Sequence to fold (175 residues):
Amino acid sequence: MRRPRRAALLLLAFALATACASRFRGDAHGDASYDFSKVRDIAIAPTPGREMPEDAREIRTIVEQELRQQLAAKGYRITPAAEAELLVTFYAGLHAKMRMSGGATVEGTDARMTIQFLEPGSRYSVWYGWTKATWRDSMEPAPEIARAVTFLLERFPDAGHQRPPSKAGMEGDVM
Fold:
């Protein structure tokens, strides 16, 4: 069936369309007492208790590929979970914007993504970020997913740095 496959391809596409930029809103914060400067090895792990639908396998692959590339560019190594100093989990989905006056009316679709870094043993969250944007049917999923991951990981520290930047209530364009 094409419709579920199309819905899966749209799952992680993020943007408020402009000619060459996506408009994201979100927030990110890290544990100020956590020493990020000692972390080099990160594993990509399933999000506990919040699995993405099976028909979103292609989207999961794109997100994992972006995480691998962008974390490597920050100086991290992607390793098996047994060797990792941090686990990174993610979730994404589409959410209908509803208006409830005079009956429920769908007013568009928000695409949302969360990325979280956890200590492997305790699963304690040391960094969490989320973003959302308006999805337009004319958008291509892969570039929008890349922009969303970039938007979030800009707020995560590079390998060897102590603290993530604090950008509460962040908004911005990603080219």
Observations:
- The two ends are 34 Å apart (CA to CA).
- Confidence is low (pLDDT under 50) at residues 4-21, 167-175.
- DSSP finds three helices and seven strands in the chain.
- Residues 57-73 form the longest helix (17 residues).
